[in-house]
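dumping this here so i dont lose it
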């Protein structure tokens, strides 16, 4: 299992070496667009919420997300494209649903507000490239994002896996908030195949 490193306190501006290291980390991650993670997720919207397992597989801009809630024994599979934003949600009563916006589709079907089209970047500790410029980014002493505010969401990177086997540091624990919507993610394992 990769070594964990806690996210240090945010700094105003990391030093030049940390900035260079973060640029190299971001470049490596963009050069490896196929990846996957397994973990646990907790989602709340106001007084409603749920938690369960999440398995995310990303191939270029296409993603497949398997969500399962052990308490309710429900599971969903969301297949989408972070560029076109379209998606298909399976595992619902009445059969699969298709929509032009996967986030809206997920919200209407489950009540969960999850920025799935931005998560492929955020979950790897990157600013979302297919969105507006971030309103704010605070960095840790290693130059990695500590908190990021983009598209109305505030993302806090609370814990990181240390670099291992040629792979750069990747987030272990993330919390994203937008109003009364909150998504907490704990990544148990990353898989980033060689290009």
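and the seq i came up w/
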């Amino acid at each position: 299992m990769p070594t964990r490193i806690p996210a240090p306190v945010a700094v105003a501006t990391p030093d030049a070496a940390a900035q260079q290291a973060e640029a190299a980390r971001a470049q490596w991650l963009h050069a490896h667009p196929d990846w996957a993670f397994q973990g646990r997720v907790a989602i709340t919207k106001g007084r409603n919420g749920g938690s369960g397992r999440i398995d995310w597989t990303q191939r270029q801009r296409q993603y497949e997300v398997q969500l399962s809630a052990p308490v309710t024994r429900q599971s969903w599979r969301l297949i989408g494209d972070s560029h076109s934003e379209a998606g298909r949600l399976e595992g619902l009563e009445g059969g699969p649903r298709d929509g032009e916006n996967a986030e809206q589709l997920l919200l209407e079907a489950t009540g969960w507000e999850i920025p799935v089209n931005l998560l492929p970047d955020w979950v790897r500790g990157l600013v979302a490239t297919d969105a507006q410029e971030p309103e704010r980014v605070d960095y840790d002493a290693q130059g990695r994002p500590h908190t990021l505010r983009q598209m109305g969401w505030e993302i806090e990177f609370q814990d990181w896996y240390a670099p291992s086997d040629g792979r750069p540091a990747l987030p272990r624990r993330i919390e994203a908030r937008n109003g009364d919507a909150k998504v907490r993610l704990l990544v148990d394992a990353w898989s980033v195949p060689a290009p």
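The first strand starts at residue 4 and ends at 6.
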